[in-house]
Amino acid sequence: PAWQQNFALFCFLITLSMDTGFFKAVSGFKFTSRKHRVSDDDAVDRINSYYAPVLIVIMSSIVMTKMYLLGDPVQCWIPPEFKPAWEQYAETYCWLKNTYFVPPNGSIPGDETVRQGEELKYYQWVPFVLAIQALMFHLPAVIWKLMNWQSGVQIKTLVGMAVNCVDDSQEKREDKIKKLAWYFRTAIEKKIRKQSGFFYNLKKVLIRYLLIGRAAYGRYLINVYIVIKLLYIANVVGQFFLLNGFLGTDYDFYGLGVLRDLWNNHDWRHSGHFPRVTLCDFNVRVIGNSHPRTLQCVLVVNLLNEKIFVFLWFMLLFVAVVTILDALFWLAWAFLPNRRFATLRRLLESAQSARRRTADAEPSHLYEHSAVDLEQFFNDYIDSDGAFLLRMIGKNAGEPVLKELLQRLWADYRAPLMNRAAAKGASSAYK
Predict the structure, then answer these.
(1) Which DSSP helix (H) or strand (E) runs through 316?
(2) Which residues cross the membrane (predicted)?
(3) Phi and psi dihedrals of 76, rounded to 5?
(4) CA–CA distance, 364 with 418 (Å, rounded to integer)
(5) How many Å apart are CA 222 and CA 387, to the nearest integer?
């Protein structure tokens, strides 16, 4: 039908527009080197917001192509007296009205309401539901981009500068690290605080309920990011319920149920899930009289639908597991300051140890520190959002770049302190 074809095209184009890199993903699937990968999230976020939607869009496109471009979506066994026009009418009617399943050895129910209760109401909508699922996967990423943009910190720019340091010569790398450290501090010190609008009010809610006892804007990014992680979890868990509700299955775990059926040689003829052969009732009016007809139809597309939804279920299971585990790690990192402090301290000391071996001419005070110095450095100079940005840089640009950046930030932090101490000592000596 024309309306369904137009609606299918509309949903398909909307889904493609959710990510400007779609065609690049299909051709190269974005398996690029770290040097050319710039992102404001981590790998698990990209699984949720990029790779999973791309796979779902591909599946939706395959089903849509099969249903609307390659052959008829349903083919029925037509009585010999039917003319070609009648055949086309009957098949179109059965496709729109829904067909119902009766086991091969079962009898057709005489009660019309019973037959209506057995109707398959999902197969026409498979590509559209898949498109909606793809958009649902991508939605948290859109929210994240809007919210981190409101903070005034261009995370993607910061990560891009860090990624550009990878594989450079030592001289160029040091110069880029200096610029990166300057940009990092500028971003931390000059966060934009908008005083009106929806996002400002949302920030106030986040501050009130998530940032208890801490500086309001010192934890804005990390707490928003944790909320986004929880949205990813809510999305993937909700998609399991969406899948079961859409398919009308009695399985609690659809993918495992289908595998169990296959293992027990219990195919669609017995289970009724994605049946290939169905029945369709309609009436033919001849000279004012209504003649009921029951046609046997073949839904070839259900062979494809079954494989797609089994794959989709296991893909959802994989995404759910990695997303929940990743969120637990982030929660521990975000709300256990000692863990975060220990991680950054280890990286800084490792960077300093390597630097001592290659930079003998540098002042020794750049490597000296006490527990109090480090605590002030991480809590006051870096703060929680700064630690979040450092972690994001490490996840995208690698640990070596992160270590060098930490060392440069430490040197920038220590230099004015030591200059003031030296000036104070000189003043005392003069007196």
Answers:
(1) helix 301-335
(2) 6-29, 50-70, 122-144, 220-242, 308-336
(3) -115, 155
(4) 11
(5) 9
Q: Where are the beta strands (DSSP E) in 170-276?
A: none
Q: Which of 2-11, 92-101, 129-138, 164-173 has the lowest mean pLDDT?
A: 2-11
In a domain? residue 185: no
> How many Å separate Cα 373 from the centre of its chain?
39
> Which is more confidently placed, 136 or 151?
136
User: Which value, in Å, is the radius of gyration of the alpha carbons in the chain?
Assistant: 30
Enter the DSSP assignment of 47: I
Q: State the pairing for strand pair 99-100/119-120.
A: antiparallel
Instruction: Please give the Cα distance from 221 to 53 (Å, whole number).
Output: 25
Q: Which structural domain, as residue segments, surrounds residue 14?
A: 2-153+191-335
CB 291 within 8 A of CB 63: no
Residue 20 has pLDDT above 50, yes or no: no
Write out the two tokens for 427: 């003043």
Closest CA to 42 of 232, 317, 314: 232
Report if residue 20 sits inside a domain: yes
Tokens of 199: 């996002």
pTM: 0.77
Residue type, 198: F
Who's near 279: CB < 8 A, 6+ residues apart? 99, 100, 101, 102, 108, 115, 294, 295, 296, 297
Count of structural domains, the chain: 1
3 state SS of 144 = helix
DSSP code at position 289: E
Max CA distance (Å), the chain: 121
Separation CA 394–CA 128 (nearest Å): 38
Token duo for residue 74: 């349903």
Q: How confident is the model at residue 19 (pLDDT cuts 50, 70, 90)?
A: very low
Task: Evaluate whether residue 292 is within a structural domain.
Answer: yes
DSSP 3-state percent helix, strand, coil across the chain (nearest 5): 70, 5, 25
Closest CA to 295 of 116, 123, 79: 79
Closest to 225 (Cα-Cα) out of 387, 378, 347, 342: 387
CA distance to 75, 243, 300, per residue, from 70 (Å):
13, 26, 11
| 3 state DSSP class of 154 | coil
